[in-house]
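Practice problem: predict the structure.
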Amino acid sequence: MITQKIDLMCNVCSVCIAFLMILLLGCGAGNKEGQFHPFVIPANFPPPSYRFKDNKITQAGFTLGRKLFYDPRLSRNNTISCGSCHIQSAAFTQHGHDVSHGIDDRLGTRNSPPIMNLAWSATLMWDGGISDLDLQPLAPISNHVEMDDNMENIIRKIRSDPEYPGLFKKAYRTDDITTTRVLKALSQFMLMCVSSHSKYDSVMRKEGGVTFNVDEQDGYFIYQQKCAACHAEPLFTDLSFRNIGLRVTAVKDPGRYAVTLKSSDRYKFRVPSLRNLAYTAPYMHDGRYLTITAVLNHYTDLVQLIRGIDPLLIRKGRPGITMTQEDKRKLVAFLNTLNDQQFVRDPLLSPQ
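Answer:
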């Protein structure tokens, strides 16, 4: 009898542990805000594409990466950090600017893309010009309108800081500060910028009885009919590059063509995620639209019938997507369920 009771208790404990693991997976990559936690794939997300075996996330590596991310010494004159153009409250983009503002207040030509869910992105930047997150920081660091510096100079500055050797020692078991270790630490911080705690995620994971209201449910249906072909769930992007018929500006940004030199890629840009739109205005690669309503108006009324336009935007020989004002209102109601307050407020991702 005693043996049977012990076996029963063990079985109950096993079930409880299994249930706890399911809860942890369902919560995505976060638990209590402000405390470090291992990287966990959210239950409603696909497998990531990042090679974690080459750069395992640790608390020490993440802490080092966070310090580097917010350190302005990664720029030539020590004024611009990664966090200057990727602000947490704006879902790690540069809220309020149509294009990025860099060193000496120099202007770029593109809007700063948000840093979120990068573990699932095989290519980076608006044009997909970088295919390795561990190399991505080199682009803004060396760009003369962003940070305008080089790794040799940055390594020299970091080595002169009395705090960094100890941080590198904890992260890599050596205080030897190298370019590779700097970049991998930055990757560890960016990989932990996982947005998976929106109302939509709670509905999909059936957490706490959360459901869509009538407008959100109707908007979800409209999204599935009008938007999902490019902005696929659950990342709300298919990670492709498309020409959406934007009016060509004086800048004449060629988009992905600059990377591939294929004429068919001219004016194609990455399909951005629809997550956190409440925080990431302005929109499009050049920040030309200030509101979500303006973006929707583009798709219904302003799509240009230009060479290379995506076939999904052509209906019966005419460009654009058909939506009524009521459709737009309900679609916006659904899009608001993709906003993740925990992500933009989590102290773990803030400057320390």
